[in-house]
Amino acid sequence: MRVYNFSAGPAQLPLPVLKQAAAELTDWQGSGMSVLEVSHRGKDFVACAADAEAAFRRVAGVPDNYRVLFLAGGATGQFSAIPMNLAAPGATAAFINTGQWSKKAIKEAARQGVNVVTVADESASSYTTTPEPGSFTVPADAAYLHYTPNETIGGVEFPYVPDADDVPLVADFSSTYLSRAIDVERFGVIYGGAQKNLGPAGLAIVVVREDLLDRARPDVPAIWDWKVMAGADSMLNTPPTFSIYLLGLILHWIESTGGLEAMGERNRAKAERLYAAIDASDFYTNPVEPRSRSWMNIPFTLADPALDADFLAGADAAGLTNLKGHRSVGGMRASIYNAMPDDGVTALIDYMTEFERTRA
Q1: Would residue 165 show up in a list of annotated catalytic residues for this protein?
Q2: For the segment 55-84, what is each residue's pLDDT rounded down to a tens digit?
Q3: CA distance linking residue 315 with residue 333, whole number of Å
Q4: Which of 7, 29, 191, 358 is surrounded by the fewest CB atoms within 10 Å?
């Protein structure tokens, strides 16, 4: 049977999309071949990639003066590409540190020779908070301000978009990409891996404002050079073709279910129901300050950690999988991305209630 997969990524995908992909797997568009087998240079796949980009622009509301890039290497690859494309060695870049993924981006920027200035650091709270708006100052000479809107591991999410003044704002949207509507024009660069809301692992989607495309270092490898990749329509090399194909199917699914306004309302309601169940209990606890709670990744702990293994075993038996928290945090984590239906959240709440009744 299909289970409710609460994995943080690779994550549960929409069942209608999986069924369509399965039906087309051995014969895509009457070609007698799988989409996995066709040439990325062939007119059919070029049209497929163009359709995925057009759908992404419609769904996300991407203005004409932004380029949309489909790149390999996931978000981690972009930790290297961002400083190489936006900051010369020795230039200053500002960062907000709210968790493990922020730390990784900071570490890689320093490795690329950037002068890292951390304008806000939430490590003192064990990464259970976000900085108050207006509590930090971005250096005027910074090449960019980087932040992570949603920290997958800690379940911490910004309730606002930071004000960077005239400094380009760069955001790692990996675990909140297309989970609700955003104003793209607030950002210089939006990037993220696809394996949470947008498809299988291996694809990064980068949205970059065109005026930032001329800042790359002269020695940046072509595969990481946004301007080069934009000029080649993301096909300088063989792109992750199956991921792009599935991205297109998922984008059309989002459109068919009401777009990002409807998606955001569903995601908000799912998260509120799960948090309400946790907060109403003395048996379960969420460690994140309420205003910084993620809609996508919801960690919780049991009153008695000795029961963790029993909780997970019972959840697996009930078809509720991948609820174990990240090894650096412990406890449980329920990732309820776009493809997680309301019924999955209901099933989890029902299981938690019954487990508490019998074990508290």
Answers
A1: no
A2: 999 999 999 999 999 999 999 999 999 999
A3: 12
A4: 358
